[in-house]
Amino acid sequence: MLNRKFVLMLIMTVVLGATGCGWIGGFGTAGETGASTTTAITWSDATTCTVSFYAMDTYMSMTAYEVASSEALEGVAAMIMDLEAELSATNESSAVARLNAGEVVQLEADSATVALLNRAREVYTLTEGSLDISIYPVVKLWGFTTGEYQVPAEAELIALLETVGFDKIDLGASASSLQLPSDMQLDFGALAKGYAGDVARESLAEAGIDSAILSLGGNIVTIGSKVDGSSWRVAITDPASTDDYAAVVEVADVSVVTSGVYERNFTDEATGVTYCHIIDPSTGYPVDNGLLSVTVICADGTLADGLSTALMVMGQEAALDFWRTHQDLDFQLMLINDSGQVLITQGLEGSMTLMSQDYELVVIE
Ligand code: ADP
Ligand code: MG
């Protein structure tokens, strides 16, 4: 019974859009429940299984269709929990925590840590530093890691920015042994859920599952299409009213990742200014450029996650230019700004429906 409650709570979280995006339809009535206290298993009919759990600081829920057992989904849940332990800067024994403590760390070439260091470097380079996972000390100073928020003194921020800059790391060709420059600290928070989604996709494909949808704390991963061959309908949160949706996009076989100013933020009582958890690495200040959310739709979920954060930093015009000049990366964008516009790149035309009359739709070429 407890498990069933837990599952229903998870479903509400996803469908009500407490996260960046949700998906619409298909859970049905919760049926048999089982498994441990941390992973809830629900069968909504004989062949539709949902596994829900808490990892990477968020609720995650995965539904697979036309399956005979929950084994593959449970395996993925366990794998994501392992990934969390391996990639978390707050787990003292993780490679990243030891790097942050200044240690020389031996890294295994095929580890998730090395994979993410390389992806972080790739997106850092692509976005000219807008995604910089060495921004972590600044994120901590603002209080976003603990919830003890504060507006730092400008001098303190400027001094701390001296430690920031992913280009100061020498990853080398094999990166077998690494030590960070003095006082530098890393956090994979902007990429880890995207990476988890990619690993999950691979694992479910290997298990022969070809119709599934995963909600990994607002990152939606779609595997194949729905059983009837139609597209998945993924809802994008309305940043101005986060219990509602601004739009629905129909997709198959891609990740849909949203970063927004509404997700984790605080208001400074003295000034009334609201600060969000995405930091511009060039200034050390939270972004405030008129963009309320960026949704990236791409088969590569790690890239989608990195870009959603980076394009929030870049702002609307630079983000759209980035899309125009990086067509080779094969992604689409939905931007929502504070002028009441939902901007979509051309590839989304026809697969996207506005859900709120408060917005004007603009198609970008
Ligand atoms: P969420 O984790 O809420 O889904 P994001 O993927 O946008 O959102 O990641 C934001 C997190 O990444 C922040 O909470 C912070 O820890 C970290 N971060 C903030 N700004 C940057 C940045 N410019 N580059 C890299 N990481 C960042
Ligand atoms: Mg991100």
In words, what does this structure look like?
The protein is α+β, with helices and mostly antiparallel strands and 365 residues long. It has helices at 2-15, 71-87, 95-100, 112-126, 136-142, 154-161, 192-206, 301-314, 316-325; strands spanning 21-23, 33-34, 39-45, 48-55, 58-64, 105-106, 177-178, 212-216, 219-223, 232-237, 245-251, 255-260, 265-267, 274-276, 291-298, 331-337, 341-345, 352-354, 360-364. 47% of the residues are buried. It is globular and about 60 Å long. 29% of the residues lie in helices and 26% in strands. A hairpin with a 3-residue loop joins β16 (331-337) and β17 (341-345). It contains 9 helices and 19 strands. α2 runs antiparallel to α7 and α4 packs parallel to α8 (301-314).
